[in-house]
């Protein structure tokens, strides 16, 4: 018996449950209820352009904040003594093991109008401020939930950079900033690109964070899609069209990201 | 410089942990207030254990996680063996499709499976519930098993399988005695990954579960949509404590294994 036939059960599974469902999204996006070809739903997506723009904008801000916060964390972790690194990494990653609904719920209780932050402000005579149901709260939720996704890939590339690299740069006359921009950052580009995709993709497609922390006024693409399938506005054709547009946006952004990744370039 | 680094790390950890600790503290609060601690009580824990919906969805979640991760591990390991023996072009095609559930946003995977199940539900006797949930979980778990097992084949010398057969092993015995031990670490990490993803999944389950078969994350979600109940805080506390225990035990076991390996 040939070993390649071992994969037969999975190949059937893959076609039925991965490939066919994705093709169904494309099919639903371009057909109406009678099964005829139409561009109506794709062009209808244009009416929601503002929500798409908001999703891209908020998730971009969240991604940039994650990168800025995570970069020094990953660097500090990677320069610790070897036996401390594992434990420290576990401590940083531990909140990720809690379900993200609970983590988001935690911020709901913190930011609420009767929440603990407003209570503390009240004690010094300030507020109450409107913290929850704002776009800022949505970005905060994204940063809190996805920050470890940025730290991990950055740490795993920086861990491989040898300390002698910095010594060499210093010996050759680099200042701190030159070492940062000409040695550390170029060497950590693969970690930066994979960190950005690992934060950006879940952030742009979330519907829980926007619903729990953004109230009704900060709808994102994820909310729109969810509403077409499980909400009152049941319309799988429009929902499929939106999913297709979302996939294309992500694909474009990831292709642009990959241009920066030295692994994919022919010339070095 | 080192001091600034430590302070910075401390601030980030503060940001990561404070929300969780606030949740834990308020799980012992007498009133439903989210900002004033008025008195200590275990009431919310008692209510949690008496909440039949939570307990039944917890059991449901564990059953689905166990069944789906076992099936995914078997299916994925067999698939990895097969894919490894394919020619270059079919191998690339299969691996690209396998990567799709990992690259795609969860909501797209959830919605696409929902469309498929709605199609089947209309034509066959398929109801949204345990079966659809199980299929969905297996579908997003198998790629992780494959991605964990495949690299083990690349690290393995392909000739040892042939050598075992030359030395008189039947193909099955050669596989069991030679190949399986080599890929076992990948199989185990694939299994553990599937199990935790399955326990934790909300988005895909949300689109494929229907109303009869709910998992714990779905129950948590509907609880957060309704009135505030500190039962969620109690539940978070218990989950947090179990996570800490599991990770510490895992760390200790790994350290011991490392020490042993170092001594030999």
Percent helix of chain B: over 70%
Determine the number of helices of chain B (DSSP H or I, runs of at least 4 residues).
Answer: 11
- Rounded to an integer in angstroms, the radius of gyration calculated over CA atoms of chain A is 23 Å
Q: Which term fits the overall shape of chain B?
A: globular
| Record field, number of beta strands of chain A | 0
Largest interface, counted with CB-CB under 8 A? A-B, 79 and 77 residues
Number of strands of chain B: 0
Seen as an oligomer or otherwise, the chain set is heterodimer
Structural class by SSE content of chain B: mainly alpha
Low-confidence stretches of chain B: none
The biggest beta sheet of chain B is recorded as:
none
What does this entry look like structurally?
The complex is a heterodimer of chains A (268) and B (264). Chain A is mainly α. Chain A is 71% helix and 0% strand. Chain A has helices spanning 8-29, 40-44, 49-78, 82-93, 100-111, 116-123, 135-158, 163-171, 176-187, 189-204, 208-214, 221-230, 236-259. Chain A is globular, with a radius of gyration of 23 Å. The two termini of chain A are 45 Å apart. The relative contact order of chain A is 0.13. The model of chain A is unreliable at 264-268 (pLDDT under 50). Chain B has helices at residues 2-26, 43-50, 52-84, 88-103, 106-123, 130-155, 159-166, 171-200, 203-208, 216-225, 231-263. The longest helix of chain B is centred in the N-terminal third of the chain and has 33 residues, at 52-84. Chain B is globular, with a radius of gyration of 23 Å. Chain B contains eleven helices and no strands. With 264 residues, chain B is mainly α. The interface between A and B is large, with 79 and 77 residues.
